[in-house]
Design brief:
Strand content: 15-25%
CATH superfamily of the largest domain: Response regulator
Order of helices and strands: EHEHEHEHEHEEEEHEHHEE
Structural class: alpha/beta
Number of strands: 12
CATH topology of the largest domain: Rossmann fold
Radius of gyration: 19 Å
Oligomer: single chain
Distance between the termini: 46 Å
Number of domains: 2
Length: 227
């Protein structure tokens, strides 16, 4: 079966170019010209991946993403945006995006991003990716951290950081590597934000004393679990 792409964009020429290109390499493509239309098309017809502009009439991309996440926590969503400040990027991820691509962009890069998201999240829809972290279970797909039958939903950034730490228990993850993975750059403001998210994760994991997230000063962070 062909993967179905929902492309939500108010620029008609860009929509035509992207849709024709994706159809030409084997994707099924549905289009919408604003966030409200995109939301209705997803609710009625579904999609394997959503690509959406941020600034659109009737409903912006961030609002659309939040509504879509109420119906599907797992469908991969990529934002196309000319807004590229750290605050804008963070808002995009917190609204439910899995990736973003800055305008203007090359079609080749968009295709690479689509393939990458479908490989990762398409496979995880059939079987959730989970990590056991001491007394906790972390579901990467739903971004939920569970313990004793109770769960809390992590933010996008908390989930990305914990996934990287949980897949490398006992190993130091370079702080610069984490910041580039999250924000595509390493600067002082990102470093402060990263430390804040690490602090939140420590609080969420505090009920199991065998778990620690160690700050390796000058290097990065390491998740340890003692028996």
């Amino acid at each position: 079966m062909k993967n179905k792409v929902l492309f939500v964009e108010d620029e008609a020429d860009l929509t035509r170019i992207v849709a024709d290109t994706l159809r030409g390499i084997g994707y099924e493509v549905a289009t919408a010209s604003n966030g409200a239309e995109g939301l209705e098309k997803f609710k009625s017809d579904g999609a394997d991946i959503i690509i959406a502009d941020v600034m659109m009439p009737r409903m912006d991309g961030f609002t659309m993403a939040k509504e879509i996440r109420k119906h599907s926590p797992t469908v991969p969503l990529l934002f196309l945006t000319a807004k590229n400040t750290i605050d804008d990027v963070e808002e995009g991820f917190e609204s439910g995006a899995n990736d973003y691509l800055k305008k203007p962009f090359e079609l080749r890069e968009l295709i690479v991003r689509i393939k990458s998201l479908l490989r990762r999240y398409g496979a995880s829809r059939a079987e959730d990716i989970r990590y056991v972290i001491g007394a906790y279970t972390f579901n990467v797909t739903t971004q939920k951290l569970s313990r004793c039958g109770k769960s809390v939903e992590l933010s996008h950034f908390e989930s990305k950081i914990l996934e990287r730490l949980a897949s490398n228990v006992g190993q130091t993850i370079d702080a610069s590597e984490l910041m580039i993975a999250l924000w595509q750059r390493d600067d002082p403001s990102n470093r402060n934000s990263l430390h804040g998210y690490i602090h939140k994760l420590r609080r969420l994991l505090r009920h199991d004393p065998s778990i620690s997230i160690i700050n390796q000063r000058g290097f990065g962070y390491m998740l340890t679990i003692t028996n």
